[in-house]
Protein backbone atom coordinates (compact mmCIF):
# COMPACT_ATOMS: atom_id res chain seq x y z
CA UNK A 1 0.00 0.00 0.00
CA UNK A 2 1.33 3.47 -0.81
CA UNK A 3 2.40 5.92 1.84
CA UNK A 4 1.04 9.35 1.06
CA UNK A 5 1.76 12.24 3.37
CA UNK A 6 0.89 15.06 0.99
CA UNK A 7 3.09 17.39 -1.00
CA UNK A 8 5.85 19.27 0.81
CA UNK A 9 6.60 22.63 -0.84
CA UNK A 10 9.63 24.69 0.16
CA UNK A 11 10.20 28.12 -1.36
CA UNK A 12 13.75 29.47 -1.37
CA UNK A 13 15.00 33.02 -1.62
CA UNK A 14 16.72 33.67 -4.96
CA UNK A 15 19.64 31.50 -6.02
CA UNK A 16 21.50 31.74 -2.71
CA UNK A 17 22.00 28.94 -0.24
CA UNK A 18 19.43 30.15 2.29
CA UNK A 19 16.66 27.60 2.22
CA UNK A 20 13.38 27.75 4.11
CA UNK A 21 12.05 24.24 4.55
CA UNK A 22 11.42 21.62 7.15
CA UNK A 23 10.85 17.92 7.36
CA UNK A 24 7.37 16.57 7.80
CA UNK A 25 7.25 13.21 9.52
CA UNK A 26 4.27 11.07 8.64
CA UNK A 27 3.22 9.39 11.88
CA UNK A 28 0.29 7.44 10.46
CA UNK A 29 2.34 4.56 9.10
CA UNK A 30 1.56 2.78 5.88
CA UNK A 31 -2.06 3.36 4.90
CA UNK A 32 -4.11 3.22 1.74
CA UNK A 33 -5.10 6.87 1.50
CA UNK A 34 -7.18 6.52 -1.64
CA UNK A 35 -5.23 9.32 -3.33
CA UNK A 36 -1.82 9.81 -4.88
CA UNK A 37 -0.26 13.27 -4.72
CA UNK A 38 2.61 14.44 -6.90
CA UNK A 39 5.18 15.67 -6.44
CA UNK A 40 5.85 14.51 -2.87
CA UNK A 41 8.61 17.09 -2.31
CA UNK A 42 9.28 20.27 -4.23
CA UNK A 43 11.73 23.15 -3.81
CA UNK A 44 11.13 26.24 -5.94
CA UNK A 45 12.53 29.75 -6.04
CA UNK A 46 10.40 32.69 -5.00
CA UNK A 47 8.39 34.07 -7.90
CA UNK A 48 8.05 30.71 -9.68
CA UNK A 49 4.83 28.74 -10.25
CA UNK A 50 3.92 25.28 -8.95
CA UNK A 51 1.22 22.72 -9.79
CA UNK A 52 0.39 20.01 -7.24
CA UNK A 53 -1.62 17.05 -8.52
CA UNK A 54 -4.02 14.69 -6.76
CA UNK A 55 -5.28 11.44 -8.32
CA UNK A 56 -8.04 9.48 -6.56
CA UNK A 57 -9.29 5.94 -6.36
CA UNK A 58 -12.30 5.49 -8.60
CA UNK A 59 -15.67 6.43 -7.16
CA UNK A 60 -14.60 9.51 -5.21
CA UNK A 61 -16.79 12.55 -5.81
CA UNK A 62 -15.45 15.15 -3.40
CA UNK A 63 -11.94 16.61 -3.07
CA UNK A 64 -10.60 19.08 -0.52
CA UNK A 65 -7.20 20.78 -0.48
CA UNK A 66 -5.53 21.79 2.78
CA UNK A 67 -2.39 23.80 3.54
CA UNK A 68 -0.47 23.43 6.80
CA UNK A 69 2.46 25.70 7.59
CA UNK A 70 4.98 24.99 10.32
CA UNK A 71 3.46 25.44 13.78
CA UNK A 72 -0.06 26.13 12.48
CA UNK A 73 -3.23 24.11 12.07
CA UNK A 74 -4.43 23.14 8.60
CA UNK A 75 -6.05 25.85 6.49
CA UNK A 76 -8.75 25.07 3.94
CA UNK A 77 -8.19 26.68 0.54
CA UNK A 78 -10.54 24.69 -1.77
CA UNK A 79 -13.30 22.09 -1.87
CA UNK A 80 -14.90 20.49 -4.95
CA UNK A 81 -17.84 18.15 -5.47
CA UNK A 82 -18.34 16.51 -8.89
CA UNK A 83 -16.15 19.05 -10.72
CA UNK A 84 -17.79 22.11 -9.16
CA UNK A 85 -16.07 24.31 -6.59
CA UNK A 86 -18.17 24.35 -3.42
CA UNK A 87 -15.97 26.44 -1.17
CA UNK A 88 -12.88 28.62 -1.19
CA UNK A 89 -10.98 29.65 1.91
CA UNK A 90 -9.27 32.99 2.45
CA UNK A 91 -6.19 32.57 0.26
CA UNK A 92 -4.50 35.03 -2.10
CA UNK A 93 -5.55 35.13 -5.75
CA UNK A 94 -2.24 33.43 -6.58
CA UNK A 95 -3.88 30.17 -5.40
CA UNK A 96 -6.28 28.35 -7.71
CA UNK A 97 -7.53 24.79 -8.05
CA UNK A 98 -9.62 22.68 -10.34
CA UNK A 99 -11.17 19.23 -10.46
CA UNK A 100 -11.35 17.39 -13.78
CA UNK A 101 -14.10 15.06 -15.08
CA UNK A 102 -12.02 12.00 -14.19
CA UNK A 103 -11.91 13.33 -10.56
CA UNK A 104 -8.21 14.29 -10.68
CA UNK A 105 -7.47 17.67 -9.14
CA UNK A 106 -4.71 20.28 -9.33
CA UNK A 107 -3.67 23.02 -6.94
CA UNK A 108 -1.85 25.89 -8.69
CA UNK A 109 0.20 28.55 -6.94
CA UNK A 110 1.72 31.34 -9.01
CA UNK A 111 4.33 33.92 -7.99
CA UNK A 112 5.51 31.84 -5.01
CA UNK A 113 6.29 33.63 -1.76
CA UNK A 114 8.35 32.36 1.17
CA UNK A 115 5.14 32.10 3.20
CA UNK A 116 3.86 29.45 0.74
CA UNK A 117 6.31 26.89 2.19
CA UNK A 118 3.94 24.30 3.64
CA UNK A 119 2.52 20.81 3.59
CA UNK A 120 -0.31 20.65 1.04
CA UNK A 121 -2.82 17.82 1.44
CA UNK A 122 -5.52 16.47 -0.82
CA UNK A 123 -8.43 14.56 0.76
CA UNK A 124 -11.16 12.59 -1.04
CA UNK A 125 -14.64 11.49 -0.10
CA UNK A 126 -17.32 9.30 -1.64
CA UNK A 127 -20.12 11.46 -0.29
CA UNK A 128 -21.31 15.00 -0.79
CA UNK A 129 -19.83 17.50 1.71
CA UNK A 130 -22.14 19.07 4.30
From TrEMBL:
Identify the GO cellular component terms for this protein.
Answer: plasma membrane
Signal sequence interval, chain numbering: none
Q: Which UniProt keywords apply?
A: Immunity, Signal
Q: Which InterPro entries match?
A: Ig-like_dom_sf, Ig-like_fold, Ig_V-set, TCR_beta_variable
Coiled-coil segments on the chain, per record: none
Q: Name one Pfam family in it.
A: V-set
Quote the SUPFAM superfamilies the UniProt record gives.
Immunoglobulin (SSF48726)
| The organism's place on the tree of life at top rank | Eukaryota
Could you give a single Gene Ontology term from the biological process aspect?
cell surface receptor signaling pathway
Q: Tell me the ranges covered by the Immunoglobulin V-set domain, including all copies.
A: 37-123
The entry's protein name is Immunoglobulin V-set domain-containing protein
Amino acid sequence: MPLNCGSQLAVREGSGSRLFCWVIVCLLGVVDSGVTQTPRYLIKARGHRVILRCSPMSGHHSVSWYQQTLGQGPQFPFEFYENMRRAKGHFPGRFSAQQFRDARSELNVSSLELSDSALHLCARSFSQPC
